[in-house]
Design brief:
Elements: H1 2-50, E1 51-54, E2 66-69, E3 71-75, E4 81-85, E5 89-95, E6 97-98, E7 101-102, E8 108-109, E9 115-121, E10 127-128, E11 133-136, H2 139-142, E12 148-151, H3 152-155, E13 164-167, E14 175-181, H4 182-186, E15 198-199, E16 201-209, E17 215-224, E18 265-267, E19 275-277, E20 286-289, E21 304-312, E22 315-323, E23 338-343, H5 352-359, E24 365-372, E25 377-388, H6 444-471
Parallel strand pairs: 19-20
Antiparallel strand pairs: 1-17, 2-5, 3-4, 4-17, 5-16, 6-7, 8-15, 9-14, 9-17, 10-16, 11-12, 11-16, 13-14, 18-25, 20-23, 21-22, 21-23, 22-24, 24-25
Helix pairs in contact: 1-6
Length: about 475
């Protein structure tokens, strides 16, 4: 009998001992999980707490806020946006507010620190062209019925170093990071700042150029309340391996490039980097501007600007031809049935011959112009040889033969002063698609997690001691 009782007691004791070991093991695992979870949560929350407005594309944005052409967007777990070009030129526009309508975002209090932070890179050579910019409300601009511009090229310009809290010295329009002190830029200027100090970012326009299949990684682009954002410039992508197209050939013969010049005339879009309708000029491009377009956004100060008047169908007669001198955008107006054809080249790109040919155009010359307004594409811009319209009135002013000096150069606030040349990139590090860059310091969240785990274990131990005493 005594042996039986002892045996039962031993079995109960061993079972309780095993249960205690299992519970302690579970408690230790819980400590580890809590530590990791809190660590990541606190690290992410620290940055989120400083983020006032994300200026990147996002899946969470309403459909009427985002417009994308010429590229595809992928979103990584850490919020990085990967832009893959499907055409040589891509346009991404986020519209947060229009006249009389707020679509997204809140007003920003400029009595508090406000920083605009950008971190981006392409290992393939995709370039943000010089008109990539954000727009925001400002007192002096509102009086003119406009919004103010904040150009990416101005943010990384060394001449504006006094407004940058932090920057990669090697920043270019291909790769870099910058922390722009927007509060310091406005600097309490009562002509710029509203009386209540509340301003709003109304839109962002990204324009990118490169070859089809190339990628640009946008790690950060947003408005923050602090300049101390960890990980800037630490993550960089690998070069993209672009697969050759597997689409069947339409002909056994290789497709020859369309010649710019034939017996029929000169094709102004044959060598252009892009040929678009109602879009600002970019390097080596051709643009057609229609009536109603705001020419202050055209970036036409370094282009040959040809004003055309429709005569019939797709045929247009040259009204005037003006060579941009760099002092300002085209100052004329586009009347009814008129088109402004703008041709750009820096003298070294593929479009140099087209610019030279445009400088030879005279009033009365005939063009055939066709375009797809929905796709914003110029489909034909042909100077017809051997035909011209009689010109009446005074003799036209001679076209300046000044050669282009440089790429279109947006200056300062409305137009940045110079274009940053892409700098050579060092061999990039692979990008992680599973987590955000680590800051390099021991996260506060881990400490909180450990403390929480210790509390859990202590509670378990006290619970079982009390339970054991009660059972005894």
């Amino acid at each position: 009998m005594i042996k039986t009782i002892c045996g039962v007691f031993c079995r109960v004791y061993n079972e309780r001992k095993k249960a205690m070991k299992k519970i302690l093991a579970l408690a230790i695992v819980a400590i580890m999980l809590v530590s990791l979870a809190v660590s990541f949560a606190v690290t992410a929350t620290a940055e989120d707490d400083n983020l006032i407005l994300d200026l990147r594309p996002s899946k969470s944005l309403p459909k009427d806020v985002i417009s994308v052409t010429g590229c595809e967007l992928d979103y990584l777990k850490d919020g990085t946006v990967v832009v893959t070009l499907t055409k040589k030129h891509a346009d991404i526009t986020l519209t947060f507010a229009t006249e009389g309508m707020i679509l997204y975002g809140e007003e920003i209090d400029f009595t508090q620190p406000v920083y605009v932070i950008a971190d981006y890179a392409s290992a393939d050579g995709v370039i943000f062209n010089e008109v990539t910019q954000a727009h925001y409300t400002r007192k002096d601009k509102e009086a003119e019925g406009k919004v103010a511009d904040l150009w990416l090229i101005s943010m990384i310009n060394p001449d504006n170093a006094k407004y940058t809290a932090k920057k990669d010295p090697a920043s270019s329009m291909v790769s870099g990071y910058v922390v722009w002190d927007h509060t310091k830029y406005l600097d309490g200027n009562t002509e710029r700042i509203f009386d209540d100090h509340m301003h709003r970012f109304t839109s962002v326009n990204y324009q990118l150029d490169g070859k089809v299949g190339m990628k640009m990684y946008i790690y950060k682009f947003g408005v923050y309340s602090s300049a101390d954002i960890a990980g800037l410039g630490e993550t960089r992508p690998e070069k993209t391996v672009i697969e050759e197209s597997k689409e069947p050939e339409t002909s056994d013969e290789p497709t020859a490039p369309v010649p710019a010049e034939t017996d029929e005339g000169y094709n102004f879009i044959a060598t252009a980097s892009s040929a678009l309708v109602n879009e600002p000029i970019t390097g080596g491009s051709v643009r057609a501007f229609l009536p109603g377009y705001d020419l202050e956004k055209s970036n036409t100060k370094w282009t040959v600007n040809i004003l055309l008047k429709q005569t019939e169908g797709n045929r247009y007669s040259v009204v005037e031809c003006a060579n941009g001198s760099g002092e300002g955008n085209y100052q004329g107006t586009i009347g009814e049935d008129e088109i402004l054809l703008a041709v750009h080249s820096d003298g070294e790109d593929d479009n140099a011959e087209a610019r030279n040919k445009a400088m030879e155009v005279k009033p009365g010359d005939i063009f055939e112009i066709e375009y797809d307004l929905g796709a914003k594409l110029i489909t034909k811009a042909l100077l017809v040889y051997g035909e011209s319209e009689p010109v009446t009135g005074s003799e036209p002013e001679p076209v300046s033969e000044q050669e282009p000096e440089s790429e279109p150069e947006p200056v300062s606030e409305q137009e940045p002063e110079s274009e940053a040349e892409p700098e050579s990139e060092a061999a990039p590090e692979p990008v992680s698609e599973d987590k955000a860059p680590e800051s390099g310091s021991f996260p506060v969240g881990a400490i909180i997690g450990i403390i929480a785990g210790v509390v859990v274990v202590a509670a378990c131990v006290v619970f079982f001691i009390i339970k054991k005493k009660k059972s005894n």
